[in-house]
Write a structure and sequence with these properties.
The structure is a homotetramer of 208-residue chains. The first copy, chain A, has 208 residues and is mostly helical. The first copy, chain A, has one domain. Chain A has eight helices and no strands. Chain A starts with a helix and ends in a 10-residue tail after the last helix. Chains in contact: A-B, A-D, B-C, C-D. Chains A and B meet through helix 1, helix 4, helix 5 and helix 6 of A and helix 1, helix 2 and helix 3 of B.
Chain lengths: 208, 208, 208, 208
């Protein structure tokens, strides 16, 4: 029973992650050159879309890493309850929200308004960080839903990671208002941190 | 066999729920400020999108709670038949319809037309309420598809909840025509009611 | 192994069906009334969307019934092979194409051009009918992929149904060019026929 | 455990594949004829959409074949690790990117700019070819994640296929700049090659 329960929540979450990650591409608008189109003109127009490609690649990477971590969290569960379901729902709300700040960033990264756009993007990461912390709490507080074989040290390590990232994301949001690319660079370096959190070439390699 | 049957209907339903919930964000239009864009101007433009954010958050919450209840219903089944499949299909039709009244609401909540928009939104909830009642009937009438271990009292409790909510949603639709926010507030307070219907911190906590 | 194989093809197919059915709603455009919006004006504008609602409801029903029949076909399989995968792929191509003729129909049903729009819609059903026939052939020819317990009579019944529907869909396409609603009415009455093909209140009710 | 691990990665991947394949249709724009619409005018307008239909059909076929090969790769695995997850993530990034060059192609295939559009399309295939090679390497290098029963010869055959296709895709990209349809024709003939790579009517037919 437990197995199936967890499975269905995972399926729904995977659906939301997969759709959010795929919708990003819809937001890159094809250039319309009209009657004066040419090979050279199209090439120039495509290359001017660089903020869109950057935002697409960045948010794709972000959602992918979030999915891997979500995946890692579910591997530790022995079941779910309604509190966990609604907490997970709040996280999914934020995941499906990501395309919006991504498009705002793509639109304004090379225009005036870049600072506001970058701050919105970083602020979204702050809220997602909180959502992950709360979800982890809903699962790991008193080991409510955690399977017996998961070591306590691993739970502390994850909790510590979320706690450490929180002020850094906050700082990135602030710094964005002063210089957009600095804030965004901090956000993206944290993604590498999240990716490393899970990556464990020795112990985990198969069926961990 | 039965297990697999139920699983595939759940997978299809989860897909429709997950997509409906994720599509909502596509409807929030990024402000286009053109040449005169500025950090301040973008901030103002973003804050003027509040009806969109409200509608997005509201409908996300609604679909999430509906999914949890759908999930709860399927937990009680021992199998599905074609009547149930088509009834479930009608419910999914209404779930995938939700983005439409949501966008109408986002567009007109701060304009003239708010009453019509709010009434459309509440009326959608009336029809979804009916769809849930019919789906419950298709499963629980004479315990057609209900697993043996499910207590009859639980079935009555759910039936009673749908029956009670129906006139309230109807009243909310009417009141919307007089004052949009009153109708919407009633709808949203019912969502809390639905969330509570399922939440059961003691008995259910793990693998219920 | 076989179990898992079939499962993944089903999951992919279910994904395509679920997304196609959910995308339909994206095509109903919210009326933009601008500064002169009013409750009455919005109501009128919404009611003028009737061809969109009709096309949305119709295509949703069509895809749902197609999914139930797809589901019925997979229940008879003992495995899949690459030929079946590509045949199934062609069917999915046509399923994901449905939103296009649906929008054309919604746009032109109450305008000049209705005949062409209706013929396009019916012609899509002709091609889908062929796709189902070919898929059934790929599975049932010499019982290649059919589980032992499935009676031969059931296979013949399905084959007969596809064969019978083919000339009717063709006729509906032709008649659409003369009178749009006649062609569409024939298409829709066939959906009832497909729904009945699967519905079997006695034998199937649970876990068939 | 391993089983479940692989399953969830497959589910997420299938989601991304299914959504990418379904989103393609959203990009075919319905012709708006306004007041002067007529049956003949609509027919002409629809037939002028041929580049869109061609691009839709082509990319659908491409994604479908990619999915079948992805499916084939996962059948050989005995588990996944984080390196494989991220490599798979990069492949999914490219899969979800496909709608963009598809729309560019649909827009410019019958206009000036066709060469650039075709080269972008072929270049996307180059990168996807690399992504598949890397994914295969992440799984098959020293048979890291490969199940015991998979013959080494099969792994070499796949590796050889990716290695052979790479310079052909590169050449197609170059040739596109000289003549768009030549480059595209080479890309599409390679799809047949990929489809054949997997198709194995004797050995595989059931539950392989």
């Amino acid at each position: 029973m437990k197995e199936k329960e967890t499975t269905r929540v995972e399926a729904f979450s995977d659906g939301a992650f997969a759709i959010a990650i795929t919708l990003l591409i819809l937001e890159i608008k094809v250039p319309h050159l009209g009657a004066e189109s040419s090979d050279r003109g199209l090439l120039v127009a495509l290359s001017q879309l660089w903020p869109s490609f950057l935002a697409f690649g960045g948010s794709f990477t972000a959602i992918l890493i979030m999915w891997v971590n979500h995946h890692g969290l579910f591997r530790m569960l022995r079941g779910v309850d309604s509190l966990f379901l609604y907490t997970n729902g709040f996280l999914l709300l934020m995941i499906t929200f990501i395309p919006f700040p991504t498009v705002v960033l793509a639109e304004y990264l090379d225009k005036k308004g870049a600072n506001t756009a970058a701050a919105l993007y970083c602020a979204t990461m702050v809220v997602i960080n909180i959502a992950y912390s709360v979800l982890h709490y809903a699962a790991a507080s008193n080991r409510r839903l955690i399977a017996r074989e998961v070591p306590q040290a691993h739970l502390f390590r994850i909790k510590w990671a979320y706690g450490t990232a929180f002020p850094i994301y906050l700082a990135a949001t602030r710094l964005s208002l002063w210089h957009a690319s600095v804030g965004l660079a901090i956000c993206m370096s944290l993604w590498i941190f999240w990716a490393r959190l899970n990556y464990n070439p020795k112990g985990e390699s198969i069926s961990a």
